[in-house]
Amino acid sequence: MGQVVLICEKDEIEEMKNYYRKQVTDKNPPGSIFTAKTTGCSITAYRSGKVLFQGANCESEAEKWRVSDGKKQKPAGAGTTAKAKNTAKNTLPAGFNKLSVIGSDEVGTGDYFGPITVVAAYVKSENIPLLKELGVKDSKELNDEKIIAIAKVIKDVIPFSLMTLKNEKYNVVQQQAGMTQGKMKALLHNQAILNVLRKISPDKPDAVLIDQFVQPSTYFQHLKGQKEIAREDVYFSTKAEGIHLAVAAASILARYAFIQYIDKLSGSAGFPIPKGAGAHVDEAAAKLILQKGRQSLGQFVKLHFANTDKALALVQKKRRYHRK
Ligand code: MG
Q1: What distance in angstroms lies between residue 247's CA and the mean position of ligand 1's atoms?
Q2: CB 118 within 8 A of CB 189
Q3: Distance 210 CA to ligand 1 centre (A)
Q4: Which of 92, 153, 156, 163 would give a disulfide with 118, using CB separation of 3.0 to 4.6 Å?
Q5: Torsion of CA 276, 278, 279, 280, to 10 degrees
Q6: pLDDT score of 52
Q7: How far does residue 287's CA lie from ligand 1's centre (Å)?
Q8: In what order do the strands lie in the sheet containing 50-54?
């Protein structure tokens, strides 16, 4: 089993703790600040600043937090230590929530089934009261029904760009190019933001706010070599949905697109496709394999998730059972 160790600053560990807040486990080894479990990776952060990533996906998980200072960092193998540099905090301008902002957020990265959807949306300061009235707020406080209802209205009110990384393409770039989710997301966010900037030109936003998924320096590192990179007045913040309605609106539109895509997948599967990455998705994937064959799975799921092996094991079990 692979492992990667990063040495992190205190505030970086706080950021991780927030980032993994939904996957925190109740295990508390001596000297630890928190432990969390994602798909294929266990994370343990220690008061010493050491953060341990263990499991099949440890490299890609640690990648989210690694800072490479412009140099390509050699892949850290078992027990190696990579210094995760603390990047300058970019403090948001005063009165940020009232500015005209392009917000950007993504959905689907933790879901086994379905694509990654990224939306950048432009909310002008004069539209903020209207969006509030339409019920735009943190999408975590809204159920699917409400999200669909709000999205249907705001999609005609605010300029936005939706980028959908379909499963077929996701699996190709993940397997053949070895691309991490962090890099995929950076490319999608950048493209969506550029699209909106073009759409609204010659108008310009006061700022761009990205719901932070990696250190800003890593974000721009991922974008190296891109023809065009949106950098001007770009800010990052975790929980950005609560900071500006543009991110909340982007999140709602991204979730709406994700829900629609899952509906489409359910249509081609012939049964409801579940969200998330728990045991219920293993069952659904096993059912798909039994009905449509192993090779069809790549059109529905993110193949590198540990769920694939679990689904294949379930298929084996079911086949053995039927042979008896
Ligand atoms: Mg987000």
Answers
A1: 9
A2: yes
A3: 8
A4: 163
A5: -20
A6: 94
A7: 30
A8: 32-38, 41-46, 50-54, 3-7, 81-83
| pLDDT at site 83 | 38
pLDDT of residue 90: 61
Please give the pLDDT value at position 196.
98
Query: 281 by DSSP, 3-state: which?
Result: helix
31: left (phi over 0), alpha (psi -120 to 50) or beta: left
CA of 76 to the centre of ligand 1 (A): 27
User: How many A from CA of 297 to the centre of ligand 1?
Assistant: 26
- The Å distance, Cα 217 to ligand 1 centre, comes to 17
Q: In the chain, what are the helix, strand and coil shares in percent, each to the nearest 5? A: 45, 20, 40
What separation in Å is there between the alpha carbon of 70 and the centre of ligand 1? 25
CA angle 275, 193, 65 (to 5 degrees): 65
* Residues in the chain where the model's pLDDT stays below 50: 68-89
Determine if the pTM surpasses 0.85. no
Tell me the CA–centroid distance for residue 107 and ligand 1, in Å.
Answer: 7
Supply the pLDDT for residue 263.
97
**pLDDT at residue number 82:** 40
Q: How do residues 76-109 score in pLDDT, each as one tens digit?
A: 333 334 433 333 346 888 899 999 999 999 999 9
Cα(253) to centroid(ligand 1), Å: 12
